[in-house]
Design a protein that fits this description.
The protein has 3 helices and 45 strands. With 749 residues, it is mainly β.
């Protein structure tokens, strides 16, 4: 009790400090403190609601292109217009940055070049701890470039680089979703110098689809100084808008007579793999040539063709153990489907935190009942047709011989168009059943509304979706909607969802039908000035699920308290009460039964973690209370160690203990990941996983080397085994081993 009392007292003190120190001028359309410590007088700098900087790119000849070595001393950069007006967004909105930043933009017929000089008065403190591709850029000093070449003000490409020249890229969707799975062909390099660090980008126009008729592109430049967690932006100077928000970007002009070539890209792969079954003593070998072709029908619309698609580079699924009543959701990890994933996004926030009911989920293509099947061929059309965003995919899968399932034709289409200032509307259609057991068709429509600067400083969202499925002539539907308001002060959400009993999207995801769900939350954010605390959040939530006769079956409500420090350390407290009516018995983890009946319980949670930007990062959480007329405890722990830019390792462990009248079970789930990066283009990633329910141990290591952006050498090694859970650790029994090599080359014309 003393510990709990101490935590409550600590939280109360922080909250009091926040109320006392919250600067009334801390908004994008009013005064902002000039000093970095938050103690300077508030002085109006600009009207950031209407502020929109612009820059004209400088045209150069292809023979004059700078060498991408991270050195801005090349004289060609002096011909570019210099951008030097940047503003701080974190921790103080609109303040003068602590560090100076200069940016330069050049282009030739085929490539966009961006140079950044990130001055730093303490270069020895620059954080540059990673070297691998697709790094966690938030853990280092970094620069992000966001490009919207269609003038959508909501979707774009993002390219990030740290001081080691390590790259990360992705897509932004509707100003509120980052899709980091996308990998484009582009180059960058960086180096630390006596007064800061420098970066050079080379982004081919063939990598980014664009609207050839558009005279100006939307552009955003963002820099983060990691040791102070300071965020510096060129445009969109507003704490209420995230880094990926493009609703108020800068303007990039002067891009005339640019080309993406004839628009043809051919990816060729040759893969050889061998596997050994330790139980049957069988050794198998496969030779698998495969390829993808992409043709830009227009600069903004791409046609894709895949033959004998290879997924050997896909990482392991995160290990999960099902302790509930409904099937688990495993996200897509395969590159071919992730490349255009933003085009197929549907429903917006109505599906963001609750995947049940998705009308299309690409993981159902090439995987049947959890087992992979070949994709013989597939065609895809994606991009922009006028103002419309279009995505169409059709595939032919091979048979699942072990399950007696024939190959299937599976297709889906998604079209959306921008409406109003920041919103969009569209429809989705799919046809096919991966198992071949039914004739299944799905059709749906959605409207995603967004409006910034509501009540002076927040953003209002209203997302609506309706989907209808027809399975062997039986029709049913889903209706979902969410209204949310987000700001740096008051926030709220209301969500409703209705899913019919026979709703069945065979190319989507559904794990529960025949219910209605109503969810609400409200929370207040405080931003102390001149404090080690960056943000404090206090909120409450309520969620009710009923059957289709409006009889309550599930009810959870509670509250939370969250503290985020300037360094990135975090503390979370949570309390909730639950009610559930179990109508059909089930087994926790397939072992401990839960009988039909009505159950009420209460749980508490404490979780804290330090930022992984330090050499050591740790996290620990404890949840305790009751469940199903018994006791429940959960512990989670994590640790990360990054001693140099060449090596990092992290480990996670979760333990759940259910002590019920019907039995007791302890569930362990553990994983370990490591990266050994030799250069920014060569690394070994290793994943190890184990859980004591399936008793399965999995090891998977991937070596990837990109000698240049268009060539790849990939080697994988895998091993699976069983480790008996009692007594733990029990016998180690090998089940299978695998080894594979894949060579890839991309031809661009």
């Amino acid at each position: 009790m003393r510990v709990v009392g101490g935590i409550i007292a600590f939280c109360a003190a922080l909250l009091a400090q926040a109320v006392a120190q919250d600067c009334p001028a801390n908004s994008s359309n009013s005064a902002a403190p000039v000093g970095v410590d938050g103690n300077e007088p508030c002085t109006i700098l600009r009207d950031f609601e209407t502020y929109r900087p612009s820059v004209r790119a400088t045209r150069i000849d292809e023979s004059e292109a700078p060498t991408i070595d991270g050195d801005l001393s090349d004289p060609i950069w002096q011909r570019a217009e210099r951008i030097e007006e940047f503003y701080q967004v974190e921790p103080v909105n609109g303040a003068t940055p602590n560090q100076k930043t200069h940016a330069y933009i050049l282009y030739d017929k085929k490539t966009l070049y961006i140079g950044i000089y990130a001055f730093d008065t303490e270069p020895e403190l620059i954080r540059a701890s990673q070297l691998q591709r697709d790094l966690r850029l938030r853990d280092d000093d970094g620069v992000r470039v966001l490009i919207d070449p269609f003038g959508t003000y909501r979707n774009g490409f993002i390219f990030g680089v740290n001081p080691n020249g390590a790259r990360a890229d992705g897509l932004t969707q509707n100003n509120n979703q980052f899709l980091g799975e996308w990998d484009g062909i582009w180059s960058a390099n960086a180096k630390i110098v006596d007064d800061g660090w420098m970066i050079e980008y080379a982004i081919p126009f063939q990598t980014i689809s664009f609207d050839a008729s558009l005279e100006d592109w939307n552009l955003q430049l963002i820099r983060v100084v990691r040791r102070t967690n300071e965020e510096i932006r060129w445009s969109n100077i507003d704490q209420n808008r995230s880094r990926i928000d493009l609703s108020n970007p800068g303007l990039l002009s002067g891009l005339d007579d640019i080309s993406s070539g004839i628009g043809l890209e051919v990816q060729t792969f040759v893969a050889g793999a061998t596997s050994y079954d330790w139980q049957s003593d069988d050794l198998d070998f496969e030779f698998n040539p495969s390829g993808n072709a992409f043709y830009k029908i227009t600069p903004s619309l791409t046609g894709s063709l895949t033959v004998n698609t290879d997924f050997s580079d896909a990482p392991l699924d995160a290990r999960q153990v099902n302790t509930g009543r409904f099937s688990l959701f495993f996200p897509e990890t395969r590159d071919f489907f992730l490349q255009d994933v933003s085009v197929f996004e549907f429903g917006g926030r109505a599906f963001r935190d609750f995947n049940n009911g998705l009308p299309f989920f690409s993981r159902n293509i090439g995987i049947v009942n959890g087992a992979p099947v070949d994709i013989v061929a597939g065609a895809k059309l994606s991009g922009q047709v006028g103002p419309a965003s279009v995505g169409i995919i059709s595939t032919r899968t091979g048979p699942a011989d072990a399950q007696g399932i024939d190959g299937q034709y599976l297709s889906s289409a998604r079209v959306s168009v921008p409406v109003l200032a920041e919103s969009k509307a569209g429809f989705v259609f799919s046809n096919g059943d991966p198992t071949g057991e039914t004739n299944n068709t799905v059709a749906g429509a959605d409207f995603q509304f967004q409006r910034s600067n509501v009540f002076g400083q927040g953003t209002l969202f209203a997302d609506l979706a309706y989907v209808r499925t027809i399975t062997d002539g039986v029709a049913d539907d889903l209706a979902a909607g969410e209204i949310a308001y987000r700001s740096q002060t008051w926030n709220g959400t209301f969500t409703v969802r209705d899913i019919g009993e026979d709703y069945s999207p065979k190319l989507g995801f559904v794990n529960r039908t025949g219910f209605r769900r109503y969810r609400q939350n409200a929370f207040r954010r405080f931003r102390p000035q001149g404090s080690f605390v960056r943000r404090i959040e206090v909120g409450a939530y309520n969620s009710v699920i009923t059957d289709l006769d409006d009889v309550r079956t599930d009810h959870v409500y509670g509250g939370w308290f969250n503290v985020l420090t300037n360094a990135g350390d975090e503390l979370n407290l949570n309390h909730q009460r639950n009610f559930v009516e179990i109508r059909e018995s089930f087994e926790i983890a397939g072992i401990v039964p839960v009988n039909p009946g009505q159950y009420r319980w209460e749980q508490y949670e404490v979780y804290a973690e330090t930022t992984s930007a330090r050499m050591f990062g740790v996290g620990a959480g404890f949840r305790w209370g009751t469940v199903y007329d018994g006791d429940f405890t959960q512990t989670v722990s994590s640790i990360s160690f990054r001693p140099s830019k060449h090596f990092e390792i992290s480990a996670e462990h979760e333990y759940l203990d259910f002590d019920l009248p019907t039995g007791r079970i302890g569930v362990h789930v553990a994983s370990m990941n490591s990266t050994l990066a030799f250069t920014a283009k060569m690394a070994i990633n290793t994943e190890i996983q184990y859980d004591n329910i399936s008793e399965t141990f999995t090891y998977f290591s991937r070596f990837r080397w990109e000698p240049e952006p268009q060539r790849e050498i990939f080697v994988s090694v895998g091993h699976t085994a069983l480790i008996e859970r009692a007594p733990f650790p029990g016998d180690f029994s090998s089940r299978g081993s695998s080894f594979g090599v894949r060579l890839g080359h991309i031809f661009r014309l």
